[in-house]
Design brief:
- The chain has 466 residues and is an all-alpha fold.
- The chain has 20 helices and no strands.
- The protein is globular, with a radius of gyration of 22 Å.
Length: 466
């Protein structure tokens, strides 16, 4: 056991002690997450600058911190399907009548699909405004064994999607075996869970109309199960600052900083597109006669959590709590928008990122990028946005899906995977903003929005759940 390993472990655990003290000092959850985020980036960057990239002395330390970083991700993955399942059933079965359901779901979906289409346009514009030349990027970065390995892995996904086709992609959403669906083994498992949860919730509603006494015990069970799952989520969310610090440290240690610098233009273009799309969210809020400042201030804590955790699914409880308690959205709409937003119409992962990569792939292949290509791209992105899982890595699958449908090469995806995690943090925050936007707009249209709660002063912390 080397002195380097012991020193790095001591520093790493020392920061964990500091995070624990922050909690005892009642520092806000956002403060702890941001501290872990910045601390991890600085610590990992300092290690690489001091010891170099791919230093063999770091192997043991990398494995050590992976227990904390990957362990946190595995916990989030563990709870995703149960959370989505009970949240969707509860959202549907607790709706006051089928008429209310028909007023909520279409408007939530319409908002999500509209915004993901707009985000695709923003992504395309970002490529041209920042003058990104994919051919120059491929030449600069070159090719190495890591990129070849990623290409091989992505190629298997592309082959699978090509065999399915667009109709097969839609049919794959319908679960053939609900028990297999609940294992989360397929890329479409999340949307399949949402679909089955909706169907089950709607069926419960029908029984409630005819013989409510027959289904009351099952309703009580689902509501109890939701509370238990939410309790599990709360315990996992408490680990977020520790998981984020480990993930950011590992990210900075295992990614060549010089390669990241070479991709800086794409990184800046991605963040610029995300900020522009967030500004469009605020404009849409204003168009519906609501204060964009209130929306930004009250949703900010949830966006910070999403930025650190890279999981819009894990943010469902915070998302719903913020909508109902701070934004005045009724519970049915909040539950539905938060749950739909994890697998449908994600503005960042399923909109901006695939659009940018599609344009870059077309540049590499020398394909003409005209109005017809643009319209087809936006339509494909809107359709393919159904079923993109709201966890880290979902954007890569979305990009492969869009490029496969468009008949484009996936080489550029393999090259940019190395910085995908850094962009994914902001994309996740935008995804969550889009889901909350759909809830607010739907509640406003249905006249179920509590204006006093929306415009009222903030009381307490939205992250009280953690």
């Amino acid at each position: 056991m080397s002195i380097t390993f012991i020193t790095l472990c001591a520093l790493f655990l020392g920061f964990y002690v500091m995070l624990s003290r922050f909690k005892k000092q009642r520092k806000s959850f956002n403060f702890r997450v941001l501290s872990a985020l910045v601390g991890g980036l600085m610590f990992g960057g300092a290690i690489q600058l001091t010891l170099g990239f791919n230093n063999e002395m770091l192997t043991g330390f990398t494995e050590f911190i992976s227990i904390f970083g990957k362990g946190y991700i595995k916990l989030l993955q563990m709870i995703v399907i149960p959370l989505v399942f009970v949240a969707m059933i509860s959202a549907i079965m607790n709706v006051d009548g089928g008429g209310a359901l028909s007023k909520i779901a279409p408007k939530v979906l319409a908002t999500l699909i509209f915004t993901v289409a707009v985000s695709a346009v923003v992504g395309v514009a970002a490529v041209y405004i920042f003058g990104i030349d994919a051919n120059a990027l491929v030449t600069t970065i070159g090719s190495n064994s890591d990129i070849h390995m990623r290409e091989h892995s992505l190629a298997s996904t592309q082959t699978s999607m090509e065999s399915l086709g667009l109709s097969g992609l839609f049919l794959s959403i319908i679960p053939g075996n609900i028990f297999d669906m609940l294992t989360g083994s397929e890329r479409t498992s999340t949307l399949s869970t949402v679909l089955f949860g909706m169907f089950l919730g709607y069926s419960i509603l029908q029984v409630k109309k005819r013989r409510p006494e027959k289904v009351q015990n099952f309703i009580d069970f689902i509501n109890a199960a939701k509370e238990v799952v939410l309790s599990m989520v709360r315990e996992i969310l408490k680990l977020t600052p520790y998981g984020v610090f480990a993930l950011m440290t590992s990210f900075m240690m295992t990614n060549d900083l010089f390669a990241l610098a070479e991709m800086g233009r794409f990184l800046l273009a991605s963040y610029a597109a995300i900020f522009v799309m967030y500004a469009i969210h605020l404009i849409m809020v204003a168009v519906f006669g609501l204060s964009p400042i209130q929306f930004a201030q009250k949703t900010w804590p949830v966006l910070v959590f999403g930025f650190g955790s890279r999981s819009s699914m894990a943010a469902i409880p915070l998302n719903v709590q913020t909508q109902t308690e701070r934004l005045g959205v009724d519970e049915e709409t909040a539950n539905m928008s938060a749950t739909f937003g994890t697998s449908i119409g994600q503005n960042g992962c399923a909109g901006i990122y695939p659009a940018m990569l599609a344009i870059m792939a077309a540049q590499v292949m020398g394909m003409p990028i005209d109005l017809s290509f643009m319209l087809q791209l936006v339509a494909v992105i809107a359709i393919a946005s159904f079923g993109i899982a709201g966890v880290g890595g979902g954007a890569t699958f979305a990009a492969v899906a869009v490029l496969t449908i468009m008949g484009l090469d996936i080489t550029v995806v393999a090259i940019l995977v190395s910085i995908e995690a850094l962009i994914d943090m902001a994309r996740t925050a935008l995804n969550i903003s889009g889901s909350m936007l759909s809830g607010v707009i739907t509640a406003k249209q249905n006249k179920t929005l509590d204006a006093d709660a929306y415009n009222g002063e903030q009381t307490g912390e939205a992250e009280a759940i953690v």
